[in-house]
Amino acid sequence: VVEEPPLQLIFAFCGATMDQLRADNAQLSQQVVLLTAQVAQMQAAQPGRKCPVAVPDKFDDSLAQFPAFFGQCQLYMSRRPEDFPTDRDKVGFLISLLSGSAARWATPLLTQPNQVLDNYAEFCHQLQAIDGGDD
């Protein structure tokens, strides 16, 4: 005749097993939190992707070159939308690529409040018109 273990022993064993499972679960939960933080850190530390399009050459006042310059700027900005989320960012980028009389034209826009800095389309229209290229 096989004797059954007393119920107290069974309850004690089940209680110890449950305690161990709770401890294991808590440890696994901590590991998930740590790994999630590490993944987020690694994703944040990833180097920015390289843009396969070169930064356009500087633009002076050669109106004949404006369409090519403007097209190159559009292409560059379209490949890096995260760098140009606002009209002001786009206008600033274009101004940074101006030289000669085009830069002299844009300088006053930067030295005093001017709404054209927040209106990319209007800025481009005015830039194209500086040497009488307005249609």
UniProtKB/TrEMBL annotation:
Keywords: Coiled coil
Coiled coil: 18-45
Annotated DUF4939 domain residues: 32-132
Top-rank taxon, per record: Eukaryota
InterPro entries: DUF4939 (IPR032549)
Record-given protein name: DUF4939 domain-containing protein
